[in-house]
From TrEMBL:
InterPro entries: CENP-T/H4_C, Histone-fold, Histone_H4, TAF_TATA-bd_Histone-like_dom. This is Histone H4. Core component of nucleosome. Nucleosomes wrap and compact DNA into chromatin, limiting DNA accessibility to the cellular machineries which require DNA as a template. Histones thereby play a central role in transcription regulation, DNA repair, DNA replication and chromosomal stability. DNA accessibility is regulated via a complex set of post-translational modifications of histones, also called histone code, and nucleosome remodeling. SUPFAM superfamilies: Histone-fold. It is found in: Chromosome; Nucleus. It comes from Champsocephalus esox. CDD domains: HFD_H4. Keywords: Chromosome, Citrullination, DNA-binding, Nucleosome core, Nucleus. Residues 25-90 form the TATA box binding protein associated factor (TAF) histone-like fold domain.
Length: 100
């Protein structure tokens, strides 16, 4: 039954509800450690991990909000790499290598 999503068979249609949870916890402690190591950090306090998640969430919300504005202005439903590059450039964080 290709293309039916979460529905089974041809019976009564049921709606699949997505459970919303805090996905920021998916940024694991080892992932934060790897980023810190790349930045030259030698030793990390235990309190840093939660704070890093909060800062990362705010940063991504701002970038995604700006990228959505570019996408909607172009009357598209798919966000492109150019939208993200322009959103970062608008915030003063120019990213090279992805066009634009």
């Amino acid at each position: 039954m290709s293309g039916r999503g979460k529905e089974l068979g041809k019976g009564k249609r049921t709606f699949h509800r997505q459970v919303h949870r805090d996905h920021i916890q998916g940024i694991t402690k080892p992932a934060i450690r790897r980023l810190a190591r790349r930045g030259g950090v030698k030793r990390i306090s235990g309190l840093i991990y939660e704070m890093t998640r909060e800062v990362l969430k705010v940063f991504l919300e701002n970038v995604i909000r700006d990228a959505i504005i570019y996408t909607e202005h172009a009357k598209r439903k798919t966000m492109t790499a150019f939208d993200v590059v322009y959103a970062l450039k608008r915030q003063g964080r120019t990213l090279y290598g992805f066009g634009g």
